[in-house]
Design goal:
Layout lengths: L22 H17 L4 H35 L14
Helix pairs in contact: 1-2
């Protein structure tokens, strides 16, 4: 059995991948995708899939950021929080 079953072509060199961890990165990725589509260097189906993925990811990032901010506000409210500058302070 000298023949190798399931031959696969050698892997291509790893492309530089964008870290899609914040909205700025997603925005630049989306812009690059649109530019490539306009330039004709990317197929429409691939661009469509990437644009959809970027938009879903942007919504997830926004939701996560809001969740973190809300958790911080709730924690501050539970522990008394600091009064706002210029705000009224009520006597308890």
């Amino acid at each position: 059995m000298s023949e190798i079953l399931g031959k696969h072509p050698p892997p291509t060199p790893r492309q530089r991948r964008r870290r899609l961890v914040n909205l700025r990165n997603v925005r630049t990725g989306l812009a690059d995708c649109l530019r490539a589509l306009e330039d004709g260097t990317m197929e429409a189906n691939k661009a469509r899939a990437l644009i959809y993925g970027y938009s879903v990811l942007a919504g997830i990032i926004q939701g996560t950021e809001l969740e973190v901010r809300l958790a911080k506000l709730e924690a501050a409210a539970r522990h008394g929080g600091a009064p706002r500058v210029g705000g009224l302070v009520c006597a308890r």
